[in-house]
């Protein structure tokens, strides 16, 4: 027997598993983290990829808009690098009054003042004008025609009217856009709701009940229709510069990439692949996975990423023991409402009419429950877990017994202690 530990909220859960059944344990690879953040930020701004140094792009007196991630992406730690970008612009003759911060809300709710301060940091909050994007206010959007995918392009007027636009964000695997970061700061970040919904519908095949497009998935860029549409729209707007962060599983900065919004981002994507894309030789009968503890398992909505990663590591019909505290419940008010639809086809039809990310997360949850047997260890009420199509459990030993009873004899087991960060790749 071998002992394994899984993070659960701010605690941990231990379990002994017959090591003869373990075929792989997936850990993110380690990388040295950046120690001198101000120095590394400036180094990236002056040694960009696919673009001139930022000091050769901006001119004194120009109006600069910096797009930043919203409060759902606090893990990006924007507050720790943004001040150095602002100070760098100051040194090039761009005063605070000529800089504005636009929070890329996509279709999320508005930010509170406390959230704005948490996103940008106290210094920037007290010096720079900060605005929320509003995807629903067409009077504050500019129309730029349609993409080749037929997506109507509506972009925040502050971006269109600025002399210079800098995108910021963080790069991770993304369950339907391939990777986060890059052009996602533009779409859905500062796009209109019509743009967002049409683009996100590309995650499905056209036609009633056609199902998910398997090319709109984690780790896929080329041939991913949703990502290609995002890139095309962003190239139409043509932002001047990008600054993206890559972080390890503990939240340390390990790389900054800067320059052209696509070329620099692709370098960061390759780093993510090396760190978190874990090669596997075979798929498992049972996967035991933790979302990675607090805050990654703060709610079910955040746990969907772990759930999606598990799909790539197990056989169809296999068992997933999913460990996620969910101390704040489901995480999105509308999430459970999508389960009024009793089949994937019904939910898909509703999503195609009114796509929302919580709705997609609900679809992915129902999809997982249909094609896997999920035993869910959480603080959620059992009736809610059962409504999701999962088997509730409050004891890891009991969960493992259930998993064995649902699996072939001598099952092959994969262990994923950091399920939200590790993507199994055949």
TrEMBL record:
A Pfam family that the UniProt record links to this protein: Lar_N
Ranges where the Lactate racemase C-terminal domain occurs: 282-419
Source organism superkingdom: Bacteria
InterPro entries referenced in this protein's UniProt entry, alphabetically: LarA-like, LarA-like_C, LarA-like_N, LarA_C, Ni_dep_LarA
GO molecular function: lactate racemase activity
Domain LarA-like N-terminal, residue spans: 8-204
Gene3D superfamilies listed in its UniProt record: 3.40.50.11440, 3.90.226.30
PANTHER family in alphabetical order: LAR_N DOMAIN-CONTAINING PROTEIN (PTHR33171), LARA-LIKE N-TERMINAL DOMAIN-CONTAINING PROTEIN (PTHR33171:SF17)
Protein name: Nickel-dependent lactate racemase
Source species of the chain: Fonticella tunisiensis
């Amino acid at each position: 027997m071998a002992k394994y530990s899984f993070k659960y909220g701010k605690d941990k859960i231990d379990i002994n598993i017959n090591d003869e059944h373990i075929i792989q344990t997936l850990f993110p690879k380690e990388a040295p983290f950046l120690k001198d953040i101000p120095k590394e930020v400036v180094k990236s701004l002056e040694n960009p990829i696919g673009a001139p140094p930022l000091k050769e792009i901006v001119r004194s007196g120009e109006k600069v808009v910096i797009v930043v991630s919203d409060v759902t992406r606090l893990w990006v730690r924007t507050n720790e690098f943004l001040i150095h970008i602002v100070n760098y612009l100051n040194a090039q003759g761009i005063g605070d009054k000529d800089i504005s911060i636009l929070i890329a809300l996509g279709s999320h709710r508005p930010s509170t003042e406390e959230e704005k301060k948490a996103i940008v940091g106290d210094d920037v909050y007290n010096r720079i004008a900060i605005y929320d994007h509003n995807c629903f206010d067409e009077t504050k959007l500019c129309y730029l025609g349609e993409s080749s995918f037929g997506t109507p392009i509506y972009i925040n007027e502050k971006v269109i009217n600025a002399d210079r636009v800098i995108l910021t964000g963080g790069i991770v695997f993304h369950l339907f856009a391939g990777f986060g970061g890059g052009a996602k700061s533009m779409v859905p970040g500062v796009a209109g709701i019509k743009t967002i919904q049409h683009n996100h519908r590309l995650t499905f095949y056209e036609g009633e009940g056609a199902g998910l497009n398997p090319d709109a998935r984690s780790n896929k860029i080329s041939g991913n229709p949703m990502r290609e549409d995002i890139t095309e729209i962003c190239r139409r707007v043509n932002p001047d510069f990008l600054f993206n962060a890559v972080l390890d599983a503990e939240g340390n900065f390990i790389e900054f990439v800067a320059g052209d919004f696509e070329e620099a981002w692709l370098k960061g994507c390759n780093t993510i692949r090396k760190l978190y894309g874990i090669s596997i030789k075979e798929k498992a009968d049972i996967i035991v996975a933790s979302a990675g503890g607090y805050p990654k398992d703060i709610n079910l909505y955040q746990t969907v990423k772990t759930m999606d990663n598990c799909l790539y590591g197990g056989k169809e019909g296999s068992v997933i023991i999913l460990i996620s505290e969910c101390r704040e419940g489901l995480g999105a008010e509308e999430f459970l409402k999508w389960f009024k639809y009793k089949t994937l086809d019904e939910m898909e039809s509703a999503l195609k009419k009114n796509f929302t990310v919580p709705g997609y997360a609900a679809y992915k949850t129902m999809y997982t429950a249909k094609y896997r047997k999920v035993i869910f260890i959480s603080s959620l009420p059992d009736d809610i877990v059962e409504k999701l199509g999962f088997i509730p459990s409050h004891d890891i030993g009991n969960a493992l017994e259930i998993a064995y009873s649902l699996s072939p004899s001598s099952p092959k087991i994969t262990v994923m202690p950091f399920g939200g960060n590790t993507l199994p790749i055949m």
